[in-house]
Amino acid sequence: MYQLILAEVKNHIGYITINRPNQLNALNKETIAELHAALDAFNQDSSVGAIILTGSGEKAFVAGADIKEFADFTISQGGELAVTGQTTLFDFIENLSTPVIAAVNGFALGGGLELAMAAHIRIASSNARMGLPEVSLGVIPGYGGTQRLPQLIGKGKANEIIFTAGMLKADEALQWGLVNHVVEQTELMTKCEEIAQKILANSPMAIAAAIRSVNAGFQDGVNGYETEIESFAQCFGTKEFVEGTTAFLEKRKANFRG
Fold it and tell me: What tens-digit pLDDT sequence spans the chain (258 residues)?
């Protein structure tokens, strides 16, 4: 079905692996399109409660965009590249109602770091290296990097990373709040699955509402508090709210997927 990625479901978790190891899993148009298709399919599958996204091999999550694909682009082609990429993949992931965990298993540079930042949670292996080196190529991050990096680590630190085209080691990324956890590479998927299983124990509807509400706080012209109130209120009209509160009062575990 897919040529450049691997996708499977196990124990209610969707696994997506970018499978271009000889290109260090670099993103090209086809890979972006396949990632969109797989993410969309998992998001529409009610049995999938969390998605883990990673790269093949032990060197790279995604080492960047495929530069040879756009090295001769014009201004209008560059604009179209950014619009299409952001809409098809990066914004799409951020607004997905199923949580996406990025398992950053090596280099996450340029579009690779932008991909990880679009995910809801980031776990890095100790050998991971992260950065936005675009200015060294005479261009800037075009898949949301100038927006999401300051949101995650603050404006001053983001400016330093972007302006110097520098790379962060995994422990620095953890210290700066760019990733949630750092583990040895052999433990990376186990840690991601551990978090995914905790997510699976909770209400899918409520998690989707929480994603929507958190994201609203970062959108221009949107009142995040109002979105939260509206989403909070809508929860009261769902079967999952009835199950969750009933289970609490009956002192049993809620069964949201039964």
Answer: 899 999 999 999 999 999 999 999 999 999 999 999 999 999 999 999 999 999 999 999 999 988 888 889 999 999 999 999 999 999 999 999 999 999 999 999 999 999 999 999 999 999 999 999 999 999 999 999 999 999 999 999 999 999 999 999 999 999 999 999 999 999 999 999 999 999 999 999 999 999 999 999 999 999 999 999 999 999 999 999 999 999 999 999 999 987
**How many C-beta atoms surround the C-beta of residue 198 within 10 A?**
10
Catalytic residues: 114, 134
Structure tokens at 8: 């499977």
Report the residue count for the chain.
Answer: 258
Report the C-alpha dihedral over residues 209, 210, 213, 215, rounded to 10 degrees: -110
Q: Quote the strand ranges of the chain, DSSP E.
A: 5-10, 13-18, 50-55, 60-62, 100-104, 107-109, 121-125, 129-131, 167-169, 181-183
